[in-house]
Inverse folding.
């Protein structure tokens, strides 16, 4: 990555990608991405673990029919490694959509072909750098910007951004950096008219999120939402106003669709998150974020903004804050095989 991305979890400077390619007897080729991050996030999976797991788990899929009801995640996952297995499901659903001659977003049930883009700004050594990055995105026409915060790096940042951009739809993402004792401090953020504060507390701390919410702060949950059940509990415990769905972290588009439907039913607005994916993962995510429950701008930064090189043709684009989804079958983009080969450091084929 040309510019490291810093959150309260730490700094991401390299972005290894795990790409899954499935080929059908009829000659269709599906692609998926397991976007593990090699740092201690809310999920502990590393890229090396993903590669090892996929080697073990891909074999049973060989010879399976292309069937839209086949849950390949359940079939492959007897461990709790959602991010690793996600690449299998992505590649498989790309194949399913192609076999039905429909685009991935139509397969998911989306009607619209446009996704509104928001942006996430990492922690920076200086306030000036934060402001410059926010300015870049506002000038590019993005309607919502989310700024990362952490202990001791919060009120100052938000105050300055708000002063510089009084009418911007602004959110703050804490990536679980706070504890219950910080509620009074975080409640001071109310002064800055934030659209939401995202995941201030640990994933399982529903009570603290509900308590901060009672002070008037709008809460968006991200790391908490690991599956349908965690989302159901968050709603039941009145712990959120919004949800940030990351299908890769949930480990399945199917499970993510159930969460989407639950949120729609409960009038909880959604937006989609990003994990610094290549164009393969990003394109699949954008297709999912076209579903009607995603009423807020999603984090669909073009990969060329944070990677030195990407592998899809045409490149993933956001123009005037909008990404237009391809109506071609499956992912609807061409994978630059030559480039992918050039970037590949390890390669495994099944059957061998
Ligand atoms: Mg987040």
């Amino acid at each position: 990555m040309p510019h490291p991305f810093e959150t309260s979890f730490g700094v991401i400077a390299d972005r290894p990608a795990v790409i899954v390619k499935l080929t059908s007897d009829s000659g269709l080729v599906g692609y998926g991405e397991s976007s593990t991050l090699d740092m201690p996030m809310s999920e502990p999976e590393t890229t090396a673990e993903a590669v090892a797991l996929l080697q073990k788990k891909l074999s049973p899929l060989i010879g399976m029919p292309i069937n839209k009801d086949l849950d390949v995640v359940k079939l492959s996952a007897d461990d709790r490694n959602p991010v690793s297995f996600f690449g299998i499901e992505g590649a498989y659903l790309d194949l399913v959509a192609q076999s039905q001659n429909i685009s991935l977003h139509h397969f998911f049930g989306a009607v619209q072909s446009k996704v509104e883009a928001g942006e996430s700004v990492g922690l920076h050594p200086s306030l000036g750098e934060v402001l410059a990055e926010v300015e870049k995105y506002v000038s590019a026409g993005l309607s919502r910007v989310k700024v990362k915060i952490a202990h001791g790096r919060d009120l100052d940042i938000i105050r300055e951004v708000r002063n510089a951009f009084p009418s911007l739809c602004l959110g703050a993402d804490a990536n679980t950096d706070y504890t219950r004792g910080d509620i009074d401090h975080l409640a001071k953020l109310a002064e800055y008219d934030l659209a939401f504060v995202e995941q201030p507390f640990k994933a399982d701390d529903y009570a603290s999120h509900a308590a901060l919410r009672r002070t008037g702060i709008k809460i968006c949950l991200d790391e908490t939402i690991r599956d349908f059940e965690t989302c159901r509990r968050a709603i039941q415990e009145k712990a959120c106003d919004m949800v940030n769905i990351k299908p890769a972290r949930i480990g399945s588009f199917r499970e993510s669709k159930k969460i989407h439907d639950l949120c729609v039913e409960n009038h909880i607005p959604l937006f989609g998150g990003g994990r610094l994916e290549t164009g393969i993962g990003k394109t699949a995510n954008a297709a999912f974020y076209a579903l009607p429950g995603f009423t807020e701008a999603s984090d669909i930064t073009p990969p060329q903004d944070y990677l030195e090189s990407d592998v899809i043709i045409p490149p993933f684009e956001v123009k005037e804050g909008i990404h237009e989804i391809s109506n071609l079958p499956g992912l609807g983009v061409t994978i630059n095989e030559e480039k992918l080969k050039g970037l590949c450091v390890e390669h495994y084929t099944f059957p061998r």
